[in-house]
Amino acid sequence: MDWQRIFMRSSCNWRLVSMTVATRVLKAAMTTPPQAGDRKEGALKMLTTGMPQLEWAWCDFARDSGARSKPPSSTTGGKKKMKKATSLSELGFDAGDASSGFFRPVSGDSSTPTSQHHRRRLTKVSVIGAGNVGMAIAQTILTRDLADEIALVDAVPDKLRGEMLDLQHAAAFLPRTRLVSGTDMSVTRGSDLVIVTAGARQIQGETRLDLLQRNVALFRKIVPPLAEQSHDALLLVVSNPVDVLTYVAWKLSGFPASRVIGSGTNLDSSRFRFLLAEHLDVNAQDVQAYMVGEHGDSSVAVWSSVSVAGMPVLKSLQESHRCFDEEALEGIRRAVVDSAYEVISLKGYTSWAIGYSVASLAASLLRDQRRIHPVSVLARGFHGIPDGNDVFLSLPARLGRAGVQGVAEMELTEEEAKRLRRSAKTIWENCQLLGL
């Protein structure tokens, strides 16, 4: 039996159920002198017949090295170094030197796996604001493995460091992501995506537009430095009122409109789909439905395009002679708008739903998924919105690595288009008060 030719199917690497047993047996077979053929044959027979659950194929694993007895063990080249962990470096522990005692380059390779020419481009996400919303977003992005580095920025240093440490201590259970934090915008340098959640917390009974004046002043302080630190970043605004503040961020950053996006009605649409799914007893992922316009009281439910499994819901209801009227439809839209207020009244704030919503946007942007999301974009010229109005509101947009890669020309009924223009007018009137 040719002991060099017994290997697992489709690979020249061992993939055995019991690696320890297989390695010992094979080592005995490989190191047996050529004249002791009977013992070598017996070792291989024990390996193959003792594990009937394994399928074997033949492969010449020594074709590259030409070795007969055992694989090469000599190594040359430089030492592999790992990134220093911030907390250990502060304690005087040199992680780079320590790693050289555990890892060395493969034989004949002078480079290391972490050399610059081998390393893929790392992805960095910065989250501005370490409140309930910001941390829910950071945690969701972290668990979904969307970034190699996450930078947290907040004005309260003790809380900020506590939040960072709390996530760092879960490193053994999470993807390998570097976490940094600071009160200065310099920590965001080189970001691919900057997510702004900073702002005053919404008070029960307060509309999103009531938050405007308290948040614009804050944006004047944080947006220009963010743009300076990351010239090519995508800017994703979550702070409320999101449509107006997306306009503010666009003006203050100097970025093209395609790279400034508001979270908009992405979450409203999820709430809309959830309520419809509850009524129709289906999974919310199988409901196609959009809320457009303002993320707030004047949002528009696009009933004309609501469908399940390709079937228009309103048409199906009409054909089955089921009763519904405009008042009932408006009641569902109102429930979508009020759902955020209900959560705030019960727990004091919203966090998890917006965290998942923004993480879905981050995935589409960073991974160039070209998915369609109802987000706040520059909407002038769409659906009768005047070209002179630089208003941001939510429309279904295709998102990718370059930002907004187009807005869907969805069909609206005359009533829906009228409500959308009314929503745009409300937002634009607030924008004009800012003097930007």
Quick overview:
With 436 residues, this protein is an alpha/beta fold. Helices cover 39% and strands 15% of the residues.
CATH architectural designation of the largest domain: Alpha-Beta Complex
Oligomer: single chain
CATH topology of the largest domain: L-2-Hydroxyisocaproate Dehydrogenase, Chain A, domain 2
Largest beta-sheet details: 6 strands, parallel
User: Which structural class matches the secondary elements?
Assistant: alpha/beta
- Look at the structure and give the mean pLDDT: 80
Q: How helix-rich are the residues, as a percent range?
A: 25-40%
Radius of gyration: 29 Å
- Say which CATH homologous superfamily of the largest domain is assigned: Lactate dehydrogenase/glycoside hydrolase, family 4, C-terminal
Summed up, the helix count is 13
Write down the domain tally: 3
Large-scale geometry: globular
Which sequence of SSEs, written as H and E, runs from N to C? EHHEHHEHEHEEHEHEHEEEEEHHHEEEH
Q: CATH first level of the largest domain: which class? A: Alpha Beta
Task: Report the strand count.
Answer: 16
**Distance, first to last CA:** 82 Å
Strand content: 5-15%
Low-confidence stretches: 1-21, 47-85
Strand order of the largest sheet: 5-4-3-6-7-8
EC number: 1.1.1.27
Family: Belongs to the LDH/MDH superfamily. LDH family.
Enzyme class: oxidoreductase
Keywords: NAD, Oxidoreductase, Signal
What characteristics describe this protein?
alpha/beta, six-stranded parallel β-sheet, 13 helices, three-stranded antiparallel β-sheet, 436 residues, Rossmann fold, L-2-Hydroxyisocaproate Dehydrogenase, Chain A, domain 2
